[in-house]
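Assess this today:

___
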Amino acid sequence: MTDKKYTGTIKGKIIELRFSSSGKLENVYKKRGDYVKRGSLIASFEKKQLQAELDKQLAGFEKVRADFEIYNLQKGEPKDDISKYLKSEKQSALNISVKEVELAKMKLDQADLFSPVEGVIIDDSGLIAGIYITPSSSPVKVLETASYYFEFEIEQNDYSIYLNPSRVNIVIVGIDKSYPGTTKTQVPSEKGKLIVEVKLDDLQGLFLGLKGEVNLV
């Protein structure tokens, strides 16, 4: 067993959120530093035009459906090939209208940006109401607090010690508490060393960037 002391850092998964379509930003509900829950509304586009488009498609659908029902009442079950083709044409128009309504509804739903995870917004790209957003611009970055883990580097000579999962205690600088955990991953680093991740049993009181020391149990 090594008597070397390794130090590392608390890290976490950062989720980058973007609108899937373009539009003018109308409301910003969450800013940098705000805590968000899964499903929290972060920002939204203007919806007047999108709602009008949905209303238009719904009206078109009602007309096409009415035409389809009238045709069925007038013609009944088709008895020849021409009647079959005509009914198929009416059915196709109805199907297309349904899809157009679904697409309009989808665009309206995509006007809201929700958080898929629980965490803290660490970058809001300076979002303010009134600016125009595209899918390639202005991402919102959320640090998923449930994803915290401890990461440290080891020398190649100590690889065998951490080859299999090992129980360790992480002593965080400035916190009068140790955090037990289990090593789980070893990947090469750019410095010719190996990076080891520790899945922690307890995440209470931790935040991104805290330094700590590893002690084998």
Notes: The mean pLDDT is 91. Residues 48-106 form one domain. The chain is about 25% helix and 35% strand. The radius of gyration is 28 Å.
